[in-house]
Write a structure and sequence with these properties.
single chain, about 130 residues, mainly beta, two-stranded antiparallel sheet, about 5% helix, globular
């Protein structure tokens, strides 16, 4: 039976809002394409440009690029970002909006990121708009 995942409002390029279901977070990485893009597929080693919102499971938003008004770019698939992003975004087409539910072992693990309000063991949920590759 598939995991019950949060629902995301908004469309590509708009700041989403997440509504969480009752119950525990999934134990493994869950990737849901909310709206498929029609661009080139993201490949490991690409510099990926995204807009994103990150929230702890059932908790607070700890970061989002929409409020800053600018996307971010980083190498994907090469260990430069958390494992859940590397695993969940490689192979997606540019122009996609993707929901990622990332268990702690593919996120920040037992250490968390206390300054961002991420506790050790937290499951992270991201809505990621794949803007482009370079």
């Amino acid at each position: 039976m598939p995991a019950t995942l949060p629902e995301a409002t908004g469309s590509f390029g708009e700041k989403p809002t997440l509504t969480f279901p009752e119950g525990d977070a999934p134990a493994e990485l869950e990737v849901v394409v909310l709206s498929p893009g029609d661009g080139a597929l993201v490949e490991a080693g690409d510099d990926l440009e995204v807009h994103y919102l990150g929230q702890t499971w059932g908790g607070h938003v700890f970061d989002n690029s929409y409020d800053r008004g600018s996307s971010i770019s980083f190498p994907i698939g090469v260990g430069a970002v958390i494992g859940g992003w590397d695993e969940g975004l490689v192979g997606q087409p540019v122009g996609s909006r993707v929901l990622l539910s990332i268990p702690s072992h593919l996120g920040y693990g037992d250490r968390g990121v206390p300054q961002a309000g991420i506790r050790g063991g937290d499951t992270l949920v991201f809505v990621v708009d794949i803007v482009g590759t370079h």
